[in-house]
Amino acid sequence: MSEPDRRLMERLFPGPFTPQRNISAAAPAGGGNKTLKGIIAGGITGGIEICITYPTEYIKTQLQLDEKLGKYKGIGDCVKQTVNQSGVRGLYRGLSVLVYGSIPKSAVRFGAFEQFKQLAVDEKGNLSSGSRLLCGLGAGVSEAIFAVTPMETLKVKFIADQRSANPQYKGFAHGVKAIIAAEGIMGTYRGLTATMMKQGSNQAIRFYVMETCKDKYRKGDPNAHVPKLIVGLFGGFAGACSVIGNTPLDVVKTRMQSLDASKYKNTFDCAKQIMVNEGPKAFYKGTLPRMSRVVLDVGITFMIYDTFMEMFNKVWA
């Protein structure tokens, strides 16, 4: 992987004396308003994707919250207990929270990536290895701050509440009101550091792998067409790479956003307690359901996103 050079850093983080460059000259065909297109296409993509993949997200979160395998024996047992207790609809508990959160999250992610990409591409419209990583990192950190942290905190609290003997949240609006009343707005930003680390590394890995695979397939021509099935396969591979790389961060983030988060002083104390009390294997709890969800999730996401971006580029100059 090549190191990002000084010119790349100036493009991504321009100073007052940085010369302006003609972005449109470097953009691929149909690239006008790429950031806005990315925001809209990303938002639509996020809403569709989460409705398809939510049950695996629910199971993953349940297993990560199940310290020392106290209640569930595994994925199958978790599904069985959930269905027996609440029916199939129980696998969709908390979906509304993620639908509300997935749309802005995906919009911010893809909009930010398109913006960073416009600033980082070379004269032919290609991204270097270093710029792919930095653009993905920027997209991940952006979505962590503006969308993921508050919505993920709400999601984890909703799921954890449903596991209790006497659930206290009567619905999305009531739950949000109760959480803010009890903890304030900052209560929805628990685990921000872990989330920024997780989302930043997540998107850095995914966009790097995805853009690298597409670049190899297109043989350096940014305007060459990549079939949707190939895009889906590349996306699934990128998702698998990200799971292997940052599941420990996902476990820490989930614990920091749970109803029991008050027992941790900060993100690093949470990681320390998990290591001391549960051992290193605890950092990979929920890996299999997360892998199944993410591979499907990322593959579908990139396929849907590319479809809408191609459509927008045809009708929106």
Defining traits:
317 residues; mainly alpha
Structure description:
- This protein has 317 residues and is mainly α.
- It has eleven helices and no strands.
- It has helices at residues 6-12, 23-26, 34-65, 75-86, 95-120, 129-163, 172-183, 192-218, 228-256, 267-278, 287-315.
- Helix 9 packs across helix 11.
- The longest helix has 35 residues, at 129-163.
- Residues 23-27 have low confidence and may be disordered.
The total count of strands amounts to 0
Biggest pleated sheet:
none
Mean pLDDT: 84
* N-to-C span: 34 Å
Structural class comes to: mainly alpha
Our estimate of the beta-strand percent is under 5%
Helix content class:
over 70%
Poorly predicted segments: 23-27
Shape: globular
As a whole number of angstroms, the C-alpha radius of gyration is 20 Å
Q: How would you spell out the order of helices and strands?
A: HHHHHHHHHHH
Tally of contiguous helical segments: 11
Give a nutshell description of this structure:
This protein is mainly α and 317 residues long. Helix content is 71%, strand content 0%.
List the helices and strands and how they pair.
Blueprint: H1 6-12, H2 23-26, H3 34-65, H4 75-86, H5 95-120, H6 129-163, H7 172-183, H8 192-218, H9 228-256, H10 267-278, H11 287-315
